[in-house]
Amino acid sequence: MEFSAKVRTCFWFDGNGEEAAQFYVSLLPDSLIENVVHQKPDQPPLVVEFTLAGAPMMILNGGPQFNHSEAASISVLTRDQAETDRLWDALTADGGAEGMCGWLKDRFGVSWQIVPEALPRLLAADDRAAAGRAMAAMMDMKKIDIAALQAAFDGE
Fold it and tell me: pTM of the full predicted structure?
C-alpha cells in the first residue's frame, strides 16, 4: 500500500479511534477515512488514517497509557456564525465540554479550537485599541460570538 501523506498528525486513543475518525470526517467537507489497519480481525483497528478538511490525520489505538490534553488540539477556522454554531454544537454534544475563548473538548476528550475568520482579522487590525476591545470581549466568551466581537471592536 502506498501512503499519500509524508506527514500526519497522530492522536492516541484507547480503542475507540475509528468511531472518533468517522465522527470527525462527518463534520467538515473535504474529509474522508483513507485507510483502516487491523492487527486482528476481532479487535478495533490499530491505525485509522483520514483526511480532515484536507489535513492528513491519523489515530493510533494504542491503549490506555496516554490521555488527550489541551497541549494538542484541532483548530478549525470557520466562515461565519452558522458554521461556528454547527461545529460547536456537534463537538460539545454527547459528553463534550465547553471551554473558554473558542476552546472545547469533544466526547472523546480531544481539544478543539473553533475560530471564526473574523477573530484573527479583528485581533490583527491596525487600530490597536479596537483590537484590544475585541480581545477583551473574546476573553469572556466560551463559543465565539462574531456579532459581539464586532460590536466590541466598533466600541458599541
Answer: 0.93
- Say how far apart CA 74 and CA 82 lie, in whole Å: 19
Query: CA torsion sign, 38 to 52 to 8 to 92?
Result: negative
Contact of 24 with 55, CB cutoff 8 Å:
no
DSSP percent split of the chain into helix, strand, coil, nearest 5: 35, 25, 40
Q: What single-letter DSSP state applies at residue 147?
A: H
Would you give per-residue pLDDT tens digits along the chain (156 residues)? Answer: 455 678 999 999 999 999 999 999 999 999 999 999 999 889 999 999 999 999 999 999 999 999 999 999 999 999 999 999 999 999 999 999 999 999 999 999 999 999 999 999 999 999 999 999 999 999 999 999 999 999 999 999
Tell me how crowded residue 51 is: count the other CB atoms within 10 A of its CB: 19
Topology, domain 8-65: 2,3-Dihydroxybiphenyl 1,2-Dioxygenase; domain 1 (3.10.180)
